[in-house]
Amino acid sequence: MLSHVDWEIWRREKSPFEDVLGFFQIQAAIEMCRGEEILDVGCGDGYLTRELLKHFKNVTGVDESTVALNKAKINAKGATIIQSSIEDFKPARKFDTVLMINVLEHVKEPVKKLATISKWLKGNGQIIIHVPNAYSVHRRLGKYMNLLNNCTDLNDADRAIGHKIVFDMNGLIKTVKKAGLVPVRQGGLFFKPLSGPQMVRLYNAGLWENDEQRDRYFKALNKLGTDFPELASIIYVVCKKNTS
Ligand SMILES: C[S@@+](CC[C@H](N)C(=O)[O-])C[C@H]1O[C@@H](n2cnc3c(N)ncnc32)[C@H](O)[C@@H]1O
Fold first, then answer.
1. Residue 114 belongs to a domain with what CATH number?
2. pTM of the model
3. Which of 78, 147, 176, 201 is the one with CA 20 to 30 A from 166?
4. What's the gap in Å between 116 CA and the centre of ligand 1?
5. Are 48 and 22 contacting, i.e. CB atoms less than 8 angstroms apart?
6. Residue 100 CB neighbour total at 10 angstroms
7. Residues forming beta bridges with residue 38, ordered by sequence position
8. How many domains does the chain divide into?
9. Which of 63, 100, 116, 233 to mutate to test the pocket of ligand 1 (most atoms within 8 A of CB)?
């Protein structure tokens, strides 16, 4: 479980809402990680990779973006940071756990990418995948407000940040199965009642008696998402290689 101290440090360093959500994502992923050799695929600026270093000895981050990796080399000092696309990456060793946090929705041909990544796993290795949920309550509200025809449609905000697909749990499970992987656990994180920019304003608005109350509120939103994955902002699946 995330300790009060971890949360305090994170909140002080990373105030915008997206980073708070990232905190809950990486804490959940850390609890599900197995083994010592961890690979963070699409590690981006390395903020989440840095958290992995607190728990695991051998952490590798790979990403194709030069801009992101320049930050990752500073943020995740101690990790092996490699610039490569998923397509071109040829790891020298295999991994116990591969993380793909907020990445699969950005890639073309997700089945092909997952099939490639599955070859980097040790025999009993696992992949932990987090993606935004098409049926997050804020997208359902967007549909009721006639801003979206279907919750699984890409909207302008999705396109602006490079999303190629909006997964729901069924779509995510079908995708991992098509890649020859076996889902062993699935769920949701964080209940997000408003759009991203609105959540940032809510977080910064100071509606609470004090920071402790605000932190309790955001932790409670995370708990709500774990209790009601069908409404959660993030859905995840943990999968293994099909060895049969
Ligand atoms: C939204 S960011 C997520 C970063 C980090 N995992 C996080 O959650 O903070 C997606 C990252 O995936 C990387 N990415 C997307 N497609 C990729 C590919 N085919 N090969 C390698 N990296 C890729 C992007 O460069 C970007 O840094």
1. 3.40.50.150
2. 0.94
3. 201
4. 16
5. yes
6. 27
7. 59, 97
8. 1
9. 63
